Request: fold
Amino acid sequence: MNKFLVQGSRSLDGGIQIGGAKNSALKLMAASLLAEGLTSLSNVPDIADVAIMVELLEAMGVEVQRTGHRIDISVPHEIEPVAPYHLVERMRASISVLGPLLARIGRATVAMPGGDDFGSRPIDMHLQGLEQLGATFTHQHGDIQAQAKVLKGAEVFLEFPSVGATENLLMAAVLARGTTTIENAAREPEITDLANFLSQMGALIDGIGTSRLRVDGVERLEPISYEVIPDRIEAATYLCALAICGGELHLENARAEHMEMLLRKLEEMGMHISEGNGGVRGKVTERLKSADVSTLPYPGLATDYKPFLVAALSVASGAGMVTENIFAGRFRYVDELVRMGAEIKAEGRHAVVRGVERLSGAPVRAHDIRAGAALVIAGLGADGETIISDAHHVDRGYEDLAGKLSSVGAQVSRT
Ligand code: EPU
Reply:
């Protein structure tokens, strides 16, 4: 099952149910460590990264039960505060247990994540921020040994609105003594979801959804039941598939307010978009026009959308300039698109994409979750068959990508 087989398609029509957000579910699972007892999360996607987070929680002595899209997490009084390398290596988001472990039990051993396909991905801002709250770190044999007798509120100014650093700091600050402010905090909808989740557990957080979060530490948090927000990146994948194939799609559960900049960009390219019936509807009646794309922290265009937009620009009319401002090395999939006949020149943080009428199906390789999904939707705009190997990367973030695309008329399967 490690390959996608994709046949070029002309039109997609129908409805696709958008699942829960990967990048929220993983952090809520980590945050559940903050309260002893039973936390229930609903709308959790059935994806490989969630399975890894389950493994990680279980390795710490937490009991986890999955029933469809619900996860029941029973956190015991005693936790083994270790995130081992064999799990961190498979999923960087494992680092998000650091803040909760420090806050709840004052120590943690977390393997240091390495670089990945986007290039170097440091965690210095996570560590510096937690140090300001009173944590100390030593590095030994590839692990970070973290200690904090007590965490004390502090003013933290992030150099860059890092999603992961904001989340780790927020999860640590909720149980710290006194007041913490996080300036230049990231504002992604998944952070708002985490802050809402923590607030329902009893945390005192002000400024949710803004770049200045103020947290008044409390003594303890209570476990709760909570529903994960829909996945805006999954929704973006299907909208860009529509941009490539034409037709009409209704994305059930998708929230327009979480992806305004993307919807504007697709409208600029010629897609008709409307909201309603509990979702977002897109309609494409003719070949789309190119546009320039530049990624920025939320509410800017997400770096995660970019591979799908590059796939869409590859078959749009005209040329578009693409600029990556978040991860310098996030252009590896371009070479794979070029194998499919795309006309793209990438250098440093920029790429120029000159649209061709149609791509040409070819064997290509997925290097990461979003790059893999982008190649699948690019295959829909190609003549003949595209075979995408290393499909397991895509399974990390998508529940049944092939099935959902096939249900609206595409020909996508797994070998
Ligand atoms: N950065 C630092 N130091 C840090 C932390 C980040 O220099 O301590 C830099 C990074 O190298 C990068 C930039 O800051 O250049 C932004 O990184 P950020 O911390 O915001 O990203 P992340 O938390 O590691 C999350 C998502 C990514 C998404 C980015 C940006 C999860 C599990 N991952 O990563 O999602 O691309 O935010 O929005 O939430 C994906 O879902 O496929 C994915 C990669």
About this structure: Residues 22-227 form a domain with the UDP-n-acetylglucosamine1-carboxyvinyl-transferase; Chain fold (CATH 3.65.10.10).
